Amino acid sequence: MRNTERHFVTGSNSLWHIYKTVPFWKVAKNFIVIQMARYTPFLPMKNWLYKTFLRMKVGEHSSFALMVMPDVMFPEKITVGRNSVIGYNTTILAHEYLINEYRLGEVIIGDEVLIGANTTILPGVTIGDGAIVSASTLVNKDVPAGAFVGGNPMKIIYTAEQMAERQLKT
Fold first, then answer.
1. What mean pLDDT comes out for the span 18-39?
2. What is the number of domains present in the chain?
3. How far is 75 from 149, CA to CA, in rounded Å?
4. Among 125, 149, 124, residue whose Cα is nearest residue 137
5. Containing domain of residue 12, as a range?
6. Which of 80, 98, 158, 160 has its CA 20 to 30 A from that of 20?
7. What pLDDT digit, counting tens, does each position of 144-166 carry?
8. Residue among 105, 113, 107, 106 at smallest CA distance from 145
9. Does residue 106 contact residue 3 with C-beta atoms inside 8 Å?
10. Surface-to-core class of residue 169, CB atoms within 10 Å of its CB (0-12 exposed, 13-18 middle, 19+ buried)
């Protein structure tokens, strides 16, 4: 289950309440920083931009591939551990706006995690240390440490124990 805070709204849908939720100038600044980071090929610069301007927590030697899209409204709710790889065009969301409510949740990506290209990570999710997320996966719940997951909806393909067994056989 995802760990999110629910905030109910009345009247128009929750996205119409956006600037009651987050200041316009914060979104504008975040958008500019994220667009610069999405296109730069310099990994240390991306991490510096994310940590300095977006207040994301990014571990040493973690790599964000080209076109990764962190949450534009609440990037400070994203933590990426040490030596992890976030694949091409991955989206990391810390919010979701629905009709009658919006939800906010921390996204925690552990150490030495591999996220495949074109993955979407929903708010309130924790991805454990050493996990592998297959390309084009919708991460809609927590991923156990060391597991290999994939699909839409996400399913566990191999547990940490099964992955260890497979590695011993090769």
1. 96
2. 1
3. 24
4. 149
5. 5-169
6. 80
7. 999 999 999 999 999 989 888 88
8. 113
9. yes
10. exposed
